Amino acid sequence: MAKAILARDVAAVARGETLSCLWEGVDRMQEMVMGGWMDLASSWKMSDSKRSPYKASWWAQMRAVLWRSCLATMKEPVLIKVRVLQTVMVGLLIGVIYYGQELDQNGVMNINGAIFVLIINMTFQNVFAVINVFCAELPVFKREHFNGMYRTDVYFLCKTIAEIPVFIAIPVIFISISYYMIGLNPDPERFLMAVITLTLVSNVATSFSYLISCVSSNIEMALTIGPMVIIPFLLFGGFFLNNSSVPIYFKFISYLSWFKYANEALLLNQWEGVDHIDCTASNTTCPKNGLVVIEKLDLVFGNLDIDLLSLAGLIIGFRFLAYLALLSKTYRSY
After folding, report:
1. Which is nearest to 307 in space by CA: 252, 254, 271?
2. Which strand (E) or helix (H) includes residue 175?
3. pTM across the whole model
4. For residues 65 and 60, what is the distance between their CA atoms, to the nearest angstrom?
5. What are the residue ranges spanned by the domains of the chain?
6. Which has the higher per-residue pLDDT, 164 or 28?
7. Which residues of 299-332 are buried (b: 16+ CB within 10 A; e: fewer)?
8. Predicted pLDDT at 24
9. What confidence score (pLDDT) does residue 282 get?
10. Does 13 score more than 70 pLDDT?
């Protein structure tokens, strides 16, 4: 009897240990399964975060948006014709006003004034041509961007690239009409340099206008702040105020003024190599040659290349700031 009871107790203990082992195995299996699912879910989450939110590659976006931007530009032939007509009319007007300047004291003053007028016209004509581009299209762009159709940099690049031919043709037409009517330096190389300079001015003004458009929340705001911001650059352009007279605390404005670089470049292009200016014997203040004109204007010989590079740098700088301003408006956490 005692042996039977002992055998039953041993069997019960063995059965309890077996069940305990089984439950421990189940717990370990559950932990392994849950851990595997967590790792798998984590890997899926990481892959989702690395996946691009856009529906096409960068190059595919670039081709499509650039094609659309070019079509949008070409679908406005009336606007392009009006701008060309405006350029021709203003070029003729300036040419008639300053027609046939001679190399004498009055001619020197008039030629210097005509050069600055050319820069002013190229600036304001192109600023107001594109100042509404980005702020007017911002709602449509943001909707398409957030729907994953294209990136901000793709839109900005395509929009600006599509308009480059216009902003090259306009200054070429403008200076071709007025240059020889005014009586500027007839050397073909000097004419070509004037074309290059005013083309750079046109694109600097366009780039600055892009910046104003991207910063502004609507067209009215852009049209209000645009001229107000341009005026300081105009005042420190070297025509109304001699470069050496600029106060030290305003120097940074003159360094950012495309009027300054363009004015110096065109004046150097005009007066370098001019050996004789007609002056009367009694007129002691009349500059005898181009060298004297350059010295009186406080210009630096050999700065022509630096001025052109500075204009190119302003184009890049203003467009980069415009892109950052546009990017700040389209940033969103996905």
Report:
1. 254
2. helix 152-182
3. 0.80
4. 9
5. 1-51, 55-330
6. 164
7. beeeebeebbebbeebbeebbebbbebbeebeee
8. 54
9. 66
10. no
